[in-house]
Known about the structure:
Blueprint: H1 2-14, H2 16-47, E1 56-63, E2 69-75, H3 87-113, H4 120-157, H5 159-189
Amino acid sequence: MGEIxxxxxxxxxxxQGISQFLVFFIISNGVTVFQMILMPLLKSLFDHTxxxxxxxxxxxxxxxxxxxxxxxxNYTAGKIDEGGGGGLAYFLAVEIALLxxxxxxxxxxxxxxxxxxxxxxxxxxxxxxxxxxxxxxxxALQGLYKDPIYNFMMNAMGDGGGTAAADIxxxxxxxxxxxxxxxxxxxxxxxxx
Length: 193
């Protein structure tokens, strides 16, 4: 184990950017796994409340091909496996899981990946702003792939397994988008004095 640590320290000293990216990749994947466990649990919990019957459609940004309004956050009322859009239950499950994952990600990336010693409050504010912008962008993109993925997976695997598989696929797409956008942003936010 000592040899591995020694080799890694040597590699990280020579190739700081590459080593940061590798650590960022490992931490990001761990946080994604956490998010993939938490989101379906929250969704299942919230599906048994009145939240699933409440539509959450905000930030209209245009018109879909069929003529309907295109919302950045488009969660129509009703459970997904019953033909709805998941309602407020789905929105809250996604956003709470994302928030929990990002809090963990913030501290791990700051200390482990970038070994930042800048002020935590300033870094947290900039990280939060970046997270909001990335979340809105990812949500806008989700409108393009969410329904087709859920329809395909539920037709292929049935409502129960198909919904769970679609949950995982949509979270992975969201995570990949966040991953590629966050790395350069974090390099700016988490500096060393």
